[in-house]
């Protein structure tokens, strides 16, 4: 591939895909984009390395070019080229800086670890994808391509359909995915289409044929898929010219999840003709389909984006008209707020919420000391838990702080800086009243009275009370209250409190009011606006009422004119005013002017009232000589207690009156008491290893500062001096507390903490951050320079970062050595020298090769036809089989499953444990994939125990089966024995677990050899046997290599199966199907027969001669003994 070319697309698009597809490689601090890259050595004709980009992003909604479209390849998505809205890679100066994925001329879509890790990886992995691949990558056709001669191009287009936009290409992709997955509910939210047109193999000057193919990545935010489409007849590279590793198709997530194309186990020429591959699921030829997600999981970033789209850009009017109480203690006495249980802020937090029909509501969170932490607006009080979900999507459950900023733009945080406590008025005892302006007086009128009436432009409020005579005494007390609220958005809402025997309270209420009971106290909050609280003690109702500031200067009744001016509180209905300090008789007269004539909110009375009731006044009781000092001794000078005790001759009632009076004074004090402030930096920035000092102060002299949670990197002194020396990238939320011992109140401040872990401080980008877990800690982005790369620019670029051509060694600091003999290039790109015009007019004879052998014209053999045969064949024409080869997977076997018990002390999350278990699997040497699925442990224990389930794939080749069945458990134990402690700058995929033993690992699922045999098949000539050995796994073996023919027979594996050619030897002739029979040759028989006869004849003649000779010798030398004896 020539040149480095890239393209940026909308940030939101790629983020959705990357989160679902390859979450661990998405850089946390960058604005996502797409690039194409292909840094390579020059091809035989030198060219200048350049890059490509365009001025604007590409989406499905951009304007279209009027250029004529490129002809639509068979099976491709809705056309290709400028006429179809695609963008072409044009050559302009290269620019770095913002990337989440890039696609290259070499048929790859790469997800690098950082912006600056841009490599083209021209040479495919020799072993295919294994799970330990150097980078996350999707490969529709990974092989060394060359665009340097100007031949071929790349088109791409991104379709953003986050909000249901209509797009014909996306509809087509959705249709294919639904058909293949049988999932009719798939709705794409983002789709990327990349098309390689007329791509030539390296070097383009010397190679024949080009490839045209397309890759489509599509996600709905939780599920992601890849479709590879190959133009029919458009995959024309000549495999005979490929000198290095063969093409690779499939994908790898970089963390153990991967899949290789089914063509990877097919003959080499089939790999290079993927356009002929038939997808059984779709019925389409030239289509490959991959599920890119390991498991379905919610995409909170997508949920957040969709929610943001549905909301107005700015909050509605009135959002800032309500604040949170500054402490839990303060809020509990503000009857507009009610305690609720949301469970959003975690353990130790408490919440108060207030709701109004016309401006929504607010919920406030408080810590263990009552310190205010944060507040949020909600719209519907009956669905506040669901309302707060978007906050979790945008601010808690993703690592992009800018999404939280966008959320807060639409739902601004609620603070307590503008909080103003309510102005309560009190009615207690026989009745003693404190007006809204704080004026105290006693009024013992008998009847129904208007306590307060208030009205503004949007709402009105009425509170009425009913009194009865207290026993036989000349005093009265409240026995009932009724309140009514109206607003422009809410009809009249009425609540009644009625005294019952034994200090019970019976209530009548309509919908639209929040009624709560706390022991004997019954409170009502009217649309979060006005509030009334009633308690029954000693057969008397005591009440308090609070109004919002909007009712100031708009009140009348016994609770006075609320205008912060106590001089005019005793204003009568006719407008005349009785001055404060008037006699009790005058005040009694004033109060009776507010008696309700007719039927009020409490209805008609059942009892008959006397027409001339006059109460006893305090001055009269003082003059009474029967003043009992002992009776009022417990009043301690409290006038209301003295009056009730003496008027009723009941010390218990007086005691209750004093207790309630004291409580009301404490409530007033608490409502108007604020916790100490915290003044100082709201954003703290620091560089790793360096100490940053921040000074915090408070308006309270006795305030002491502490941290809510201790962390070794932070140190906070009681005087507010904060020291931060960042060492570890552990999730941590910095929360500063300031507590006043004098008033017992505390405040909390949670500043943003941004740490830079870049290799050099000059590389820090504090305005581009990502959140570390669910915490306030953010990591600054890095702008790498000086030949560095990596997320923190911690790695230096080296010529050996990209692999060299197969069998070529790389020298650190220098680069690749020379290409192998008979090849030319720079060591990373190598090719056989030659001319592409030498054999241009030559072609293979029809059916020259048998059995799907591939015929090509060999330049090295003088343009002669040559066959490339499947591995089973032994001859040059692919007719005779006999070689061994690896079987194919006929049915996917069950997974090998184990469980292991792990322990750690790093407070790791489920995701961190799973990533660390996958990383620990590298110790298995690629023989198995140790990918975890951890079960969350119980919290509260410093040592966390995890039950991890790991799965492994059985494969027929190599020692995989023997390893998984006989060595796996011991290898897993060893993998967790030798763990390297994690460096502070490393991400959380290296949790250090405690060593484990054999008892901590056990089998769940394992298949023996005989069971596994059914899942593999020998696709080739008939008669091949599936043979297993621990060293090589399953192998398809021809009977010819296992002594199929008896001695004297030559074995040939033909299409019908093995066949024996019997060969004569010695005097015998072999015969039979496997040359198992022997017979003697006829000429040999007669030869032996006549030879034997001749031999016998010669033997007889010889014996005759010997006997004859023997007889003759005996006659010649014989003597007559008796003759000798007779002579004289």
From TrEMBL:
The EGF-like domain, residue ranges: 1037-1076
Region described as Disordered: spans on this chain: 33-82
Residues spanning the membrane: 1084-1110
Cell location: Membrane
Keyword Transmembrane helix applies: yes
Domain VWFD: 423-602
One GO MF term attached to the UniProt entry: ErbB-2 class receptor binding
Signal peptide: 1-28
GO terms for biological process, alphabetical: cell-matrix adhesion
Domain AMOP: 296-411
Keywords: Disulfide bond, EGF-like domain, Membrane, Signal, Transmembrane, Transmembrane helix
GO cellular component: membrane
Lineage top rank: taxon: Eukaryota
UniProt-recorded name of the protein: EGF-like domain-containing protein
